[in-house]
Design goal:
two-stranded antiparallel ribbon; 2-enoyl-CoA Hydratase, Chain A, domain 1; alpha/beta; about 15% strand
Length: about 325
């Protein structure tokens, strides 16, 4: 049996210059963020300058409370209140970790004592009392201190005769505090009732996500209810509702767009236009609130009877 002819490599062997192992280029951590909606990588500094909104598709990332306040208010007008009020583990709650340990962890992570930042400031020279929830603090869950701080923000607005604005971002009530957490629903709602009795505006802004007891109380009691695009808004989660009703849920269920069509949300406003829109609405609402009852007819100023401007900026005759 004949042998196969030798290969050219065996007659003229190739010199071994050594092989350099290939390295897969990896994206440096902490410099870029991938958009979950469109997949584009965005330089973090650029994303922060865009108020955590994707420049390609408009996806709204979660934004820290103080960063939101910085973009929203007039420069130098912010005065924080109740920053040192801190929660306590009144029930001595223990799960996989204790509530006390959880509080220490998130206080260190966020630099906040609790998951809401409250204070006063100005939006294009309109003075407001502001409460901004921080979702990165235990999922923005509402405990007794969050309820207390928001109630104080509302009462501060009532006392000063100014509007109150609340930005909600929460998974719902805080289980670590049991009924003390649930009591905040009535507490905040009562303060808003007194604010409404004083004929003062309350604008509620719903961000992703707004769920549970927050949705069932102060978040949906606004004179105006605005929402950021594609925010998840509801009470119970979609999976729980599907299991309970045993029915397929509608498309885009529990989104801002779904609720806008059904009347719960008055308007969807991009974060990039939020400051300008709030300023315009405050200008209209506070003009009405500042007039005496004798100057009104059917709830709106006599000076504005001939023309009413709707929220889209279109004028119509009354």
């Amino acid at each position: 049996m004949s042998k196969p002819p030798p290969s050219s490599d065996s007659i003229f062997p190739k010199p071994d210059y050594g092989k350099t192992p290939s390295r897969k280029k990896e994206m440096p951590e902490g410099l870029w963020t991938k958009c979950p909606e469109c997949g584009v990588y965005i330089f973090n500094k650029e994303l922060e300058s865009m108020q955590m909104v994707c420049k390609e598709c408009g996806h709204h990332f979660n934004i820290p409370a103080h960063q939101r306040i910085h973009h929203l208010l007039d420069e130098g007008s912010w005065v924080e209140h109740d920053a040192e009020v801190s929660p306590v583990d009144i029930l001595k709650f223990t799960g996989t970790t204790s509530y006390s340990d959880q509080l220490k962890k998130y206080q260190k992570k966020t630099g906040l004592k609790e998951g809401v930042v409250c204070g006063t400031g100005r939006i294009e020279d309109h003075e407001v009392s502001l409460a901004v929830m921080e979702f990165q603090f235990l999922g923005g869950s509402m405990g007794s201190v969050i309820g207390e701080k928001i109630t104080r923000a509302i009462e501060r607005a009532t006392e000063r005769q100014i509007p109150v604005l609340i930005f909600s971002a929460s998974g719902g009530a805080r289980m670590h505090e049991g009924m003390f957490s649930l009591m905040q629903m009535a507490k905040t709602s009562g303060a808003l009732s007194r604010h409404a009795a004083a004929k003062l505006p309350y604008i509620s802004i719903l961000t992703h996500p707004t769920m549970g007891g927050v949705t069932a109380s102060f978040a949906t009691l606004g004179d105006l209810i605005l929402a950021e695009p594609k925010a998840m808004i509801g009470f119970a989660g979609a999976r729980v509702l599907k299991q309970t009703t045993r029915q397929d849920l509608p498309k885009d269920f529990q989104t801002s767009e779904f609720l806008l069509e059904r009347g719960l949300v008055d308007r969807i406003v991009s974060r990039l236009q939020m400051r300008a829109e709030l300023a315009r609405m405050l200008g209209y609402m506070m003009t009405r609130a500042s007039l005496p009852p004798s100057a009104r007819r059917n709830g709106r100023p006599a000076a504005a009877r001939s023309q009413v401007v709707d929220l889209n900026g279109h004028a119509s005759k009354s």
